[in-house]
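Section handout 9: paired folding examples.
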Amino acid sequence: MLEGCTPWPKELVQDYVRTGCWEARSLAKVLEDLALKCPQRPFLWDKDGKLTYGEIDRLAERLALGLIGCGLQPRDIALLQLPNIRDFVVVFFALHKIGMVPIMCLPAHRHSELTHFAQLSGAKAHFFMPRFRGFDFLSMAREVQASVPTLRFLLAAGDGTERGVTYLGPLMELPDELNRECVPAHYGADPFDVAFMLLSGGTTGVPKLIPRTHADYLYNARMCAQALGWASDTVYVVALPAAHNFALGAPGIIATLTVGGSVILCPSTDAAEVFGAIEKHRGTVLPATPALIISLLNSPQRSNYDLRSLRQVCVGGQRMLPELFDRVRATFSHAVPIHAFGMAEGLTNLTRPDDPSEVQRETQGRPVSPADEIRVVDEAGVDVPAGAVGELITRGPYTIRGYYRAEQHNGIAFTPAGFYRTGDLVRLHPSGNIIVEGRKKDMINRGGEKISAEEIENLILSHESVHMVAVVAMPDPIMGERSCAFVILKNGASLTLAELNEFLMGKKIAKFKLPERLEVVESLPVTVMGKISKKSLREQIASRLSLSKNR
């Protein structure tokens, strides 16, 4: 595997291959095989129209050749930061045709996160859209490049003539006579090597990099599609960021690929955009976070669209409460609400379309593969009694054995036996499904986006007016959780939420990480061990919000 990654034990690799869990095919090879088998079948719909399997494969082939001509090589690492446009899919497969390794960045990421990813990985290229939703990504890319000596290539979607930037549009217009025969024999991806890197929730600062191989991710996606009963008539609606694990492959775009289905890329989560795409292209599966599905359910525009093509509404990224499950089922009576509980590190749990109604409503699903191993353990790592709450730990054919270049952290995040410590507190339902009860780790889950309290605290502490700070989650009916900063100010100092967030934006972090409430206090509660009691702070802010609501 790529240097800096933890491989599976050799005997497990042999077993996964022998039992058929792992195929000797890369992601690009799966696309190529379908392009030969059904070249005219639609693979992607977006605002610009339709692209078939054959067209996507041909565009990816042309782009791969163009990138090779620029000097990019197998195992070169790239920052892939594109929104939900067709170029995202084309670039993704083009990189795998070469054997490059993209880091799946989000459009919300900014200078701080991107610089960290590039420095840690030695990334050579950055793919981005020059401007998106009013933000100048080109200027930011130049800033990141100036900070990271290895980042030689800036590659932008579309056409343009800016100095030092290669635009993708012309590269995808190369003549068709240029083909794989022009490519050196060593180009291409090893199915058992790292395909790309996803991002962790970032519980201890900026996100960790999660190396996923072609073989393990294809198996993950294939088992998701099988668990949900997907076939070639599946039409998957992507309004969430396509680079998210949920939208990408668990179940996502890659699961759709494994059954020869179609994908709709929505440029935003605007209700009219999403409903219009479902109606126009007869979408069958809608993945959403609880925050997104609440927004769609509350939209007055919903009644203007024919949404009867939907068969499944798949909610993940955060627990879907039973009350929300009931609303989804009542509103989309022709669709089955599906719980999706998983992690970019691997394990994916889904409720099944044929599960009993109470199991669908009350649980967050079960592993998609019989080869997944799960345990529920106490603080000492001992299995708890059936039905008791404990930490979920897991290992299996698509759960990583270690983060990228994080040896010290890996010693904490993984057991000696190779189980990943998820940090999720769960209990097992009598059906065998999982019920999620909370998180061990100090992380705020804002509508599926994970915010490291430690990262934001460290930045706030650098403000000249701040003496002490604790950032905690506060409950929110739409986003699930938002962040609240409890701050002790220095003598004579003052600070408003607007001033604090202006300061934090100057640190060039993603906007979703900004605190949404500021509590200026004289002191912070502490535990008997002398540590700040975040439990007490969470209870305080929840109580204040409840009192305010009831007035």
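Moving on to protein 2 of 2.
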Amino acid sequence: MDTGHTDAPTARPDEPAVQANQPKLRKPIRLWPGVVAAVFLVLSRFVVPTFLPDLALYGLLGGAIGTLAIVVWWVFFSRAPWIERLGALGLIALALFVTSRVVHVSIAKGAMGYLFPVLAIPVLSLALVAWAVVTHRFYVGHRRVSLVITVLFVCGVFTLIRTGGFTGDFDHDFAWRWSQTPEERLLAQAGDEQAALPSSPVTPAAMNMKADWPGFRGSNRDGVVPGVRIATDWSASPPVELWRRPVGPGWSSFAVSGEFAYTQEQRGSDELVVCYNLKTGKPVWKHRDAARFWESNAGAGPRGTPTLSNGRLYTFGATGIVNALDAGTGALIWTRNAAADTGAKLPGWGFAGSPLIVDDAVIVAASGALIAYDIDTGKPRWSSPAEGASYSSAHLANIGGIAQIVLLNGAGAIGVAPNDGKLLWQYPLSSNTRICQPALTADGDVLVHDGEGNGMRRISVVNGPGGWTVQERWISEGLNPYFNDFVVNDGHAFGFDGSNLACIDLKDGNRKWKGGRYGHGQLVVLSDQDLLLVLSEDGGLALVKASPDQFTELARFPAIKGKTWNHPVLAGDVLLVRNAEEMAAFRLSLADR
């Protein structure tokens, strides 16, 4: 007989009744830590670099920290079912692996082979947080299906785009995958351009045998333009465009002699050396090599600038091809491959040195190695061992009355004898990548930049009874370029510090001023006028006083469009500018003496 007795505990009046065997309710997903991490990621990776471009590198670091914080939240603090925690990460990893096989090659690879995950993982992390916030009240099945859809959608977007590379502040040039690149548009016009080439070569008499701008950064490779004074009121006398035309990709600048300008560019599977008419911009002749270098950060094409000497043109391609050409006709005189001759490995951004002529030798910096060729025959004379990655060019200097080749490579800053390549002196540097050119002070010291974030150094190099000695005078954080060369004028150095210009005093390295915003561009100095001619990263021109007193911009002018890392050239009153898409020539009004 049922007496109604039970062993179950009696509920207190203030407690709700609980049915036997009822499962314990799971706590809701904890969202707020993920939201905080997502906000931090967005601010550090995307918002702050937009308004403070100099912090772009820290933005990448902040993005990585934000992504890691989201993963830690999801795995350890989200309170989601374990099958969802581990399943979401597994799904993302699988999607990344599969998508990396089908995205455009420019997204799949960077110079170091990690571009796609760097782009995709922060976006997928944000998508995970957004999915958790939107679906935390959905039924379990609906929530999990929506997760799959979210991950597939994000990865699918990456399969539809390509990148033309990124700027010095890591801003990508994204476009639809199926859209034509500037190079592809140029190749479509190649037939018409080829028909325009002259039927007869340029005669030697038509050439000015003394080059107006013999090659990389001018006569002394220092970006100094003596003997020219220009009008600085561009509102009254703006630059006058002479011509404008598309150009194949590459980061070459120009060499100029008389009526002819020479540059290097990529056209499909061929690396080209091209002579253009300086007055009209029309091609005069082309030399082709079956070679192509490409990497997604900076794109395709050669990185060196041609060098003119005694009616010949010497070039160095991105894969190591060294050519000696007749400057009037483009006829090949001799060719070598510096990579094969030195054993230097192709660096991540390609061979970037420009040939240097010293007496009867052509000297090329093949990444960290130096090699000298006989100027007439191309026969190798001497070479130095490869020393790490370097994108700096050989630099001729006279130190203590002794001519030598100065190079920044993996060993640091070195000086070698030009006749036999013997090492004279060496100064160790801490970074692994050398890009900027060295410079000389008026009293013979050497200025070197130790890679991004490591500051400028002034060193004294002296040849005494016991041999060469090197002494560090100072290290300065006041001028810190990345791959943008600096200039020396009247006891001061001027150059890019991040995306700004800066000036330091050569006596002590102290910064005098920092100002303007020009991206990661290039510049030259008109020494007779104490004037900086700046070509900004977006293709704009600016005039800035080369004065230590304060930053003073005198004029601005839009020149070309697109990412511009190429050095400007000023040959007389003609200014040449180019990037990987277009080039243009302008006539500048000269100042009254």
